[in-house]
Amino acid sequence: MAEVLRYRDDEPADEPAVTLDAFLDQPDATSVRIEAGEDVRRLVPVLDRLRLVEIDFPRFRDGRGYSSARILREAGYTGEIKAVGDVLLDQLLFMRRCGFDSFAPDHPIDPAAAERAMSIFPAVYQQAADGLTPVWAKRHG
Q1: Are the C-beta atoms of 88 and 105 separated by less than 8 Å?
Q2: Most buried of 26, 69, 88, 140, CB within 10 angstroms?
Q3: What is the average pLDDT across 98-115?
Q4: Which pTM value belongs to this model?
C-alpha cells in the first residue's frame, strides 16, 4: 500500500462515494461511504465491484472505523480504504495497520509529519491488516 495523504479539496472528480444503502441499491456504483455505526459486513458479498470505501470518523475518539477497515481487509478487499473526517496525526500509523491506504482529514496535516508518524516504529509486535511480520515471528519462525 502506498503512503497517501489527501485532503477534501484533492478529491478526484470521478464518481462520488454514496451511502451504504444507496451503494447496495445501485449495481453500477463502485464507491461507498461508511458512516460510524454502519455494518461494513453488508459489503462482503459485493467486494468485487468496490473501488473505494470511505470510512467516516465523526470524532477522533470514535474507533469504530478501525474495525470496519480491518473487517474489509480480512474479508479479502484489496481496493482503497480512505479515512475521512476527524483524523489526527497520531492516528495515522494505527489506521494504516488496520488497513487504511489514504486519509482525508478535516484539518490539514503536514505531509512530512505524516510520513514520520507512519515510520516512527521500525518493528511491530502484533499481526494486523497491513501484513507486516511481527518481531516474535521473525525471531521464532
Answers
A1: yes
A2: 69
A3: 91
A4: 0.84
